[in-house]
Amino acid sequence: MYLGMYSFRGDPAELLAGHDRMLTLLPEGQLDLHLCVQTEDGIAILDTCPSREVFDRFSSGRAFQELVAAAGLPRPEIQHLGDVKSYVLPSGHTN
Questions:
Q1: Per-residue confidence at 94, pLDDT binned at 50, 70, 90?
Q2: Count of domains for the chain
């Protein structure tokens, strides 16, 4: 599993509303691990893909650009974070 980050700069309240709109546009079950964090200058979305190649293809693709635009979000800065080595969820599920 590969983790990348999308940083959206602007009014956090407007960006959070855009993030909510974006989530409604995604097919059920598409997201494995997805976090949205409010930052000092906007929001950051940490999102996983099966591999870096899949992340690169998705984050640079037309479908992603259209999704962001349809949600009313600005173009994000994209950062590669790396391979997820382990995680723990509240349910006790680990990997």
A1: low
A2: 1
